[in-house]
Amino acid sequence: MSRTNFDVAALRSLLAGMELGSFARAADRVGRSTSAISAQIRKLEEQAGTPLFRKSGRGLALTAAGEAMLGYARRLVDLNDEAAAAVRGVDLAGGIRLGLQEEFGEGLLPDVLGRFARAHPKVRIEAVVARNAELLARIDAGRLDLALIWADGGLGLPEASIPGYALGQRAVEPIDEPPMCWVGSATAPMTWERGEPLPLIAFDRPCQFHAAATAALDRAGIPWRLAFSSPSLGGLWAAAAAGLGLTVRSRYGLPANVRAVPAGEAGLPGLPSLPLVMLRAAPTMPPEVERLADILLASVREARAA
């Protein structure tokens, strides 16, 4: 029985088209003509044996098969790029100092380190899992090469800076802008009546998420009180899981014993988004650092899709 071999270049064009919202713009990104992109998409549909798109108003939307194809396309393209980089960079050596936010340490770090180590066993990685202030301080002191940072809500463009932080010769790359969400216990009921102060769970130091939560509550005229504080994210998860109150984070890294509580439930106000950026110590980094950055970006995309 013959097997179907999907064209990686066509899958890359599909991803670019869906990300940019236009296959004409995708053509510029992948360096092909619009007609060549259309031919690639037709070939994918022929290979799949089913339509990947359907009419939606004036444009196109993915069918259920197209949604499935899109998910696999990300994995296939990432694996292709990982293989190509591994073959070309098999002799990479040296050391990399990586900084991650706490919510990415447990869920993302094992995958990133495993994928990188298999391809580049001679490179030594020193990973630090910490909060924004410490990661920025380490970048400033020349003690990190690469870091994932939660930026201010106004950051949306590569040339923008992190408020209160001088970029200097460093490089910032926007990755995602996920909405913040209320987080509570997945099982334990939280007793809170409208009109009573809402119990909040927060870090014991200033935090962008907590500041956004209190600002939203103040605007909505909802009183609040600090019910629990902790120096670690693990402490926040434990208190939320126990039903002591609500905390605010993104959906990245939520453990199974907590849940995202939708805005509107129990009268909770909506929350803003908070950009996630990758900060490099310099605009041009050694090849081993760039390779780790590629793997980190791929892992974040996969987590976002999940």
From TrEMBL:
Keyword Nuclease found: no
Residue ranges constituting the HTH lysR-type domain according to the UniProt record: 6-63
GO terms, molecular function: DNA binding; DNA-binding transcription factor activity
SUPFAM superfamilies: Periplasmic binding protein-like II, Winged helix' DNA-binding domain
InterPro entries: LTTR, LysR_HTH_N, LysR_subst-bd, WH-like_DNA-bd_sf, WH_DNA-bd_sf
Record bears the keyword Cell cycle: no
Keywords, comma-separated and alphabetical: DNA-binding, Transcription, Transcription regulation
Family from the record: Belongs to the LysR transcriptional regulatory family.
Record-given protein name: LysR family transcriptional regulator
Organism (species): Cupriavidus campinensis
